[in-house]
Amino acid sequence: MSIVEVIKADEVTCAEMNQRDGCQCIRVSFKKNKDRFLNLDTSCSDKNLYENVLKAYNSLIGKIVAVNCWDPEKEPGLYSNSDWFKDMRVLNDDESISAHISAKGFCEVCGIADGLLNYSKGAKGKWLHYSCKFNREGSKKSKSNGCLKQIAVPNILIEVNTNVVFADGSINTVLKLSDGTKKTINIKVFDRNLAITKKAKSLIGEKVKTTCWDPINEPGKWSSLGYFNDIDKII
User: Fold this and answer.
1) What residues are paired with 29 via a beta bridge?
2) Judgement on whether residues 80 and 184 belong to the same structural domain of the protein
């Protein structure tokens, strides 16, 4: 396969689920260029991760990116000329972030290079975001009954407090709900790109539910401590 740069630099304006040519896709819109489509059926081996990949691309809204597509060597333009894409790289003037992207490449799960890849899979040099690693492992465990998804009682989201430092030195986002309870997400482990924090801020004043994964043999291990790893509006 040959790599083709289909967009040199443009701002992401939207990312949403879409159907195209009978395939489940993510459609990404740009400020200057036409929409591009990521085929989830071929790029992501686990359908349970589709929503998580979409969240990763939503985190790119407002950022300037370069976009690549892969064409077969003997069929140039097969996919690149048909509005598909394979991965995206965030363009950044920060030399340290640029060096990180050059060294670690693209996330194996979501196909994004943004300077936030901090988990290495073995010795093959493949890197992932912590959140992508967690979601993939959670999906695998769920399939084998290795963990349980805990859904908290819906409440109105009152406040979102960011950069809260705990005694162990971890940085967290803490939610305050209408019943007085608080929910916490560890930024380094589960929200490196701040997509969940950003999502929570957009839901202030709304009725929401939070979810958390517990090991099946240790129910309540994380949920009982007030942790969460996703939040959604109750419709």
Assistant:
1) 14
2) no
d(Cα 21, Cα 18) in Å, to the nearest integer? 10
Task: Count structural domains, the chain.
Answer: 2
- Domain span at residue 161 reads 147-233
- Quick one: 128 and 27 in the same domain? yes
Give the Å distances, CA to CA, from 83 to 8, 28, 57, 101, 217: 14, 10, 17, 24, 46
Residues 121 and 40 in one domain: yes
**Dist. CA 178–CA 55, nearest whole Å:** 26
pLDDT (tens digit per residue) in 60-96: 999 999 999 999 988 999 999 999 999 999 997 777 7
What Cα–Cα distance (Å) separates residue 161 from each residue in 10, 24, 184, 187? Answer: 32, 35, 10, 12
pLDDT tens-digit readout, 107-144: 888 888 887 777 676 545 678 776 777 666 555 554 44
Q: Which residues pair with 67 in a beta bridge?
A: 7, 88
* 18 and 64 in a common domain: yes
Output the six-digit token pair for 230: 């996703």
